[in-house]
From TrEMBL:
It holds the Pfam family ABC_tran. InterPro entries: AAA+_ATPase, ABC_transporter-like_ATP-bd, ABC_transporter-like_CS, ABC_transporter_ATP-bind, P-loop_NTPase. Belongs to the ABC transporter superfamily. Residues 6-241 form the ABC transporter domain. Keywords: ATP-binding, Nucleotide-binding, Transport. This is ABC transporter ATP-binding protein. The keyword Nucleotide-binding applies. SMART domains: AAA. It comes from the Bacteria. GO terms for molecular function: ATP binding; ATP hydrolysis activity.
Amino acid sequence: MSAAFVSFDDVSLAYDRSGNAIEDINLSIHEGEFVAFVGPSGCGKSTFMKLCTGLHAPTQGKVQVDGNPVTGPLKISGMAFQNANLLPWRTTLDNVLLPLEIVKPYCHQFRKRREEFVGWARKLLATVGLAEYEDKYPWQLSGGMQQRASICRALIHQPRLLMLDEPFGALDAFTREELWCVLRDLWEAQRFTVVLVTHDLREAAFLADTVYVMSRRPGRVIEKRTISLERPRPLEMTYEKPFIDLVQALRAQIGEVRSS
Ligand SMILES: Nc1ncnc2c1ncn2[C@@H]1O[C@H](COP(=O)(O)OP(=O)(O)OP(=O)(O)O)[C@@H](O)[C@H]1O
């Protein structure tokens, strides 16, 4: 096993005097690992993400990424959220290029290397099936297409850490499953580290190597479950018994947390 890429040592965070939002988190994520966080609403999943990416500092404990303490917004991460949040006045291609215009070191090279960067964006868009939509505006895309573009935008600067906060939560079940496969294939090809926050236990079990189950507030990790289903994982696998049993077990656990 490689050294931890993301590590949380006794981490707690209190936003205000109402007490800890998350408490005593100890975990290690290895480079290239795909982890998912599940738990009841308000248990601190998004808070975990903010700590990981340096958008908040812990009240107690230590957060490290790639061997360094996280002291401010992390440049090696890409993020995507439930809402695609594409800029409506930019085409799909220009939305995907945005991080390269902003993030160091690319922003300093943007003008000079624009053609090369456009090539990266086109390649990524083609990978997720949006080759013909590069010049369309967000309002000309379906919700699923917008989310594909938003994942491309999160990956364009080749981040080592991809943070996904319920990225498929607003999509219909069919589109969601399609995008699981898009994400699975991108991850298989590039092996960036992924932290996925989701309410969807099937999604967590299908995509992740490790699922962390969190308790109600103050959020603590109450279980680390290794998903040993063979890879690559075809979608059909989700209709087979081992997968169904796994999701049932996770569901039972969340049910216990909710009623406790
Ligand atoms: N900026 C903030 N200031 C004060 N309290 C906050 C802030 N952000 C989150 N909280 C509180 O911290 C707790 C954890 O919130 P968080 O958004 O991390 O939970 P979550 O598990 O992601 O929730 P959900 O599943 O509903 O999205 C909640 O009780 C929330 O009200």
